[in-house]
């Protein structure tokens, strides 16, 4: 199940509590983001052992900007980020977000 995160406080709690998780920056109005979200859903359904979260850029712009600044990852939307031990270890954007790329990134960062 994919859970929505809206605030910096919620995100910081994830960094403390979760050893590894995926995070998606999702635009509610972009068709490319919609396609990426569908791929993210397919991945999450097959990998329920890994927590998956997202933010809606239109609702949580301050958090989106903070993630970009803190982890030195240029903001894009859609954008998938794999976090491990409090660090961003992989990211991709736009059409590069597929079930296959998400699965491969997870395998490469075991």
Automatic annotation (TrEMBL):
It comes from the Bacteria. InterPro entries: BrxC, Thioredoxin-like_sf. NCBIfam families: B_thiol_YtxJ. This is Thioredoxin. It comes from Neobacillus kokaensis.
